[in-house]
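Attaching the record inline, Q. Sequence:
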Amino acid sequence: PQSSFDIEVNLQSVDFMDYEDVIITVNSTPEVTVVPKIVGLDRCKPDLNCTLSYTVNVGNVIAQDYVVTFTGTSEETSKEHSQILTIRGEVGGSSSSGGGSSGGGGGGRGRPKLTLAQCNDKKDNDGDGLIDFNKDLGCDSLKDNNEVNIDSIVTRGNYTFGEELEEEETPEPTEKDIEIRVVFWSFVLILVIGIAIVGIVIMRYVRREKRFKELINRDDWR
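Structure, as predicted:
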């Protein structure tokens, strides 16, 4: 590489990183490669804020942005969450000539400018149509380096954000369930019939008593 330097990357991520071991993979361009500063130190123990050290190797860059994607993947459940770091290539010129840039996209010999604050770079980093603080729902401040709104993320694997769970299908009743229902409704039917019979008996008794009193009253008048 034409130049290299070390950076500390704070991987602010989602809740599963708080209780699961996560391995970090880096996807970058051939012009700007990012590798762990120490081989093997590409993992995060359970922690919502995991800071790792990387070495940035800079090749032939032009005056444009180079995107590096850090992806945290749970070793237990394959849950994933990605975070973007933008590295801006600056074409180096002669300091004595006022710092002009080459017209043909020549090699950059200087250190690229790191643009860590996604919420203050005038770009739609998460593709939701909203840009920077305070319009993007994923931005807490101008210094926030993660423009993604966690509530709307859908990650790969078996971990999902922002999706409503499908309604559980009603299970088919078992034979035991059917037997219990039959016994219950049979009991209810018997109870209703019993109440009806008792009501009829009481009504007949009341009528007999009424007739009996009427007969007694007639005899008394005689």
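The chain is about 20% helix and 25% strand. The helical segments are 175-221.

More tomorrow.
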